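Workshop exercise sheet. Pairs work together: one partner reads the sequence aloud, the other fills in the structure field after running the prediction. Swap roles for the next sheet.
Pair: D.N. / O.F.
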Amino acid sequence: MLFLQQYNNDSNPGERSNERGIALVMVLALVALVAVWAVQSGEEDWVSLRRAENMQLAAKTWLGVESGEALAMRALSADDPAYDSLDEDWAQLTPPFPVDDGVIAGRIEDANRYLNLNDLVDASGKAQADVVAVFKRLFTRLQLDARLVDALVDWMDTDREPYGSGGAEESAYANRPYHIKNAPLDSLNELLLVQGFEPAMLDALRKVVIARPSTVLSAVNINTAPADVLLSLADNIPQGDVEAMISGRESTPYKNIGDLTAGGLNQWVSTVKPGLMTTKSDAFLIRVEARFDRARWAEEMLLARQGDAFQVLSRRKVAGL
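Structure field:
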């Protein structure tokens, strides 16, 4: 009997081996599934943590920019509006300053150092010929085709007649996916929509022009404007006079236009369009950039000064300072 029992126990060794093999495969598959789940769960946790960290860094950069703008407005509020020049506190360049694990940088410029492109047309949408002449002189100095100014006038004016020899009304945009605007510019980047303008031109123009809202002529501050702007204000302005003017304002800013003509100097001033020159700035550009780790935010804000108060005219994201 013992022999028979032992025989029966060992009669199907292959089946028992198969069962053990199947069990082993099931265990290995289960272990693999657990490993895959663990990896996926870890990746999801990492992504969630990364997302939360990015949101926190983004919030820091935004708050950093807001803080920088508040400090800049405070500096402008402390300014004496009697006249504005490059030796005043608001105009000084300051190094970036650290905040926690990040850094905030900023600068202030007066918008009156630039010529305002939106002054090419008046409040009724008609071209201002004397301002057009100013911009044509400026474009010539920058070695740009002065006829581009005509095309820009047509982009902004309300009539349908081409302006000057380089005019470009609606028909010039027939093959483009947009219509002519017939309204003032919202930003300098909009120039790329205007017939004849190319990206490389903007690099030169950004140093001397601005596109800011205006209902009256935007005056140029003789204490802050660059030479190309000043030399474009009228025909045949002696370059030597402008160079001496810029050198002199560094030590003794002009408090009024009369200071410029004292002692019979700078007789060319009488040929400049009335109201086109000033020693007071009524608009300012605040540029602030905040960086925290891999997050960065840069913004430009245009302010109009109205007495002791400031009004935000525009705010936009920029590539950087």
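Discussion prompt: Helices lie at 2-9, 13-77, 129-141, 148-156, 199-205, 227-231, 239-251, 257-260. What would you look at next?
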